[in-house]
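User: For documentation purposes, I need each entry recorded in a consistent format: the amino acid sequence on its own, followed directly by the corresponding structure tokens. There are two entries in this batch. Please keep commentary to a minimum and don't merge the entries.

Assistant: Recorded as requested. Entry 1:
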Amino acid sequence: MSVIYLLISISIIVAVCFFIAFIRAVKSGQYDDDYTPSVRMLFDDELVKPKVVKPIGKSPKAKRRFFKFLNL
């Protein structure tokens, strides 16, 4: 029976610690910005410039490799 009292008191102490941490986070402004996270996903992608690859050499094999690289 004494173990139950010990577990209840420890759980209350842990709950109070989490509550204090939550109050500190709210007071420090961690949850103030509600709008930016919903819009951030729209602007997450960066513009990527396409790579320009010139074929090495003038042999037909080099040209085939070049066009295979471009998926043509």
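Entry 2:
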Amino acid sequence: MKPTQANADSMTADSRDLAESADAVSLLSAWGETLNGHFRRILGRYPSAPSRLMEAVEYSLLAGGKRLRPALVLESWVCCAGGDRDKPSLAVLAAAAALELIHTFSLVHDDLPAMDDDDLRRGRPTNHKVFGEATAILAGDAMVTMAFETIAQDAPANLIGPLVRELAHATGPAGMIGGQIIDMDSAHPPSELGALQTLHRMKTGALLTASCRLGAIAAGASEISLASLDRFGRHCGLAFQIVDDLLDQTSTPQQLGKATKKDAAKGKVTYPMLIGMEASVAEAERSLTTALESLNSFGPEADGLRALAKFVVERKK
């Protein structure tokens, strides 16, 4: 739906109240069930693939998790297309599934000994602890190719190029993978806030922003709507990373389902380390406010996005 000035005038004072009218946990749960069914159909497309490889892919892909990124894809589609949550288009399902395949690949590789060397992910042993390092690497590789094949097979011809271009850019050297390289450079950690924000705009924010853009593209959104959702996604991404850093300091592995306090142990710079806990909380709140303001030109069709933005800041894991 194209934003209008009338909607903008009516939304400026009410965005946080509207965010409460949709239940983020219920949205994430419902979209998660939809995606799990779709993932099983995708996995069924590879009957001749080596069974151990597909077991490793399924182990991580169906391990649960918040499903925040694909939910943002789907809610951005709802926002721009006025779509029915009970009848998501094949194009948006393809975009959401592809995004989550990329995200899951990044987690599998991030947990490897050569990267963050983690033993726990989503409350259970990491992929390489179960299947071995070589299989985990190949499972991650497989998920990358499956992501783009899913778009190529399921999206309408006119959307394949735009969706692939968006996802590839967010994943590649100027996006998540580039951010991972910067994050691994322990000899040159960020020393000021701007550099830290740049790092996380690539490492974490690129896929979160792409989530919103993919949903808008799948809906055939206007450039105005796409720009609004781009801004929303960028500020949600910043808030998400700040809260992640805070939870790493204040939560237990049992609460998060993964190792905690590992950033400090590895000498990585985080928002609490750089600007302190209170300033980090305030920065996350400012990012949330800006994200919600980015949706002022939309009406109730964006309530799901507003709820997810609040969830990003208020979550406990």
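Summary note for entry 2:
The longest strand covers residues 120-121.
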